[in-house]
Amino acid sequence: MHELSIAESVVRVATCHARGRPVAKVAVKAGHLRQIVPSALEFAFELVAVGTELEGAELEIEDVPAAGICRACGIESELDGFPLSCRSCGGLDIEVTRGEELLVDSLEIEEEPVLTTRGA
Questions:
Q1: Which of 30, 35, 63, 77 has CB 3.0 to 4.6 Å from 87, enough for a Cys bridge?
Q2: How many CB atoms lie within 10 A of CB 62?
Q3: Is the four-CA dihedral 15, 47, 7, 27 of positive or negative sign?
Q4: Residue 114: predicted pLDDT
Q5: Quick check: 1 and 36 in contact, CB under 8 A?
Q6: Is the pTM of this model over 0.70?
Q7: Is the dihedral of CA 52, 53, 56, 62 positive or negative?
Q8: b/e burial code for range 3-12 (CB count within 10 A of at least 16 → b)
Q9: CATH fold for domain 2-65+98-109
Q10: How many Å apart are CA 5 and CA 47, to the nearest integer?
């Protein structure tokens, strides 16, 4: 289950950027070619986030469709399945341009509580 190691990386990156502040939501872009099972990643994220600033945070996963440019005809198209082939000419010499990414796109950080001191 590679989702567990992905969840660990997401938590590590988000924790670094949160700098001790509580996180409400983490948005991740995952390319279709990464073959991530969203429910497995969400489950792993919840486990790994326990005890961190991300505990209880929502994980939003955006699936990025695969696309590529055919080296034979030069047409760029979305790639539906394997083998990766050009929708226009059927060629198999494809340069993948999208669909392999895996990144933490954004964090929604909660405001820290303001501590007030009551004077006499």
A1: 77
A2: 10
A3: negative
A4: 43
A5: no
A6: yes
A7: negative
A8: beebbeebbe
A9: hypothetical protein PF0899 fold (3.30.2320)
A10: 12
Q: Which residue has the tokens 């700098």?
A: 19
Q: CA-to-CA distance for 57 and 33, rounded, in angstroms?
A: 26
In Å, how far are 9, 11, 68, 111, 113 from 42, measured between CA atoms? 13, 12, 28, 24, 28
Neighbours of 31 (CB within 10 A): 20
Could you tell me if 48 and 7 are in contact, meaning their C-beta atoms sit under 8 angstroms apart?
Answer: yes
Return per-residue pLDDT of the chain as tens, 120 residues. 589 999 999 999 999 999 999 999 999 999 999 999 999 999 999 999 999 999 999 999 999 999 999 999 999 999 987 899 999 999 999 999 999 999 999 999 987 654 445 554
At residue 119, the pLDDT reads 53
CA-based end-to-end distance of the chain = 59
